[in-house]
Write a structure and sequence with these properties.
alpha/beta; Rossmann fold; 5 helices; 38% helix; 23% strand; globular
Length: 127
């Protein structure tokens, strides 16, 4: 078993953890930079899609943004965003068991989902 990236294991005191594993890498890293600026209280971790399954469990992510949702993501994360699966225009979202589809998702939508997931986390409905 490959260990999760050190940057994702060394958790700060943050109460909200966001894991970004979407492709392409440039989009993932840009989204991470924006989230670190606009949501500074969130701990943001980035990994390539091949590292997603092992990292989602060790990092204990509340919200995962990825290109393909895995069983590990479904079983571990409170919420997830599947960005543009199969390079389509629709993204799939699940926050606390509530599923939805967003066509042409934008940054504003992602920030809203981050905030909604953080609210659920703060209310004590999850770990």
């Amino acid at each position: 078993m490959v260990a999760a990236p050190a940057a994702c294991i060394m958790r700060s005191m943050s109460d909200f953890r966001l894991l970004l594993a979407n492709e392409p890498r440039a989009y993932r890293e840009t989204l991470a930079a924006v989230c670190r600026i606009l949501r500074p209280a969130a701990e943001v971790c980035t990994v390539c899609s091949e590292e997603l399954c092992q990292t989602v469990q060790s990092f204990q992510a509340h919200l995962v943004v990825c290109s393909r949702v895995t069983t590990a993501v479904e079983e571990t994360a409170l919420a997830w965003i599947e960005l543009y699966p199969d390079h389509g225009v629709r993204s799939h979202v699940n926050v606390g068991g509530q599923h939805s589809t967003i066509e042409d998702i934008e940054l504003e939508d992602i920030l809203y989902i981050i905030d909604a997931t953080e609210r659920v986390t703060r209310l004590g409905e999850v770990r």
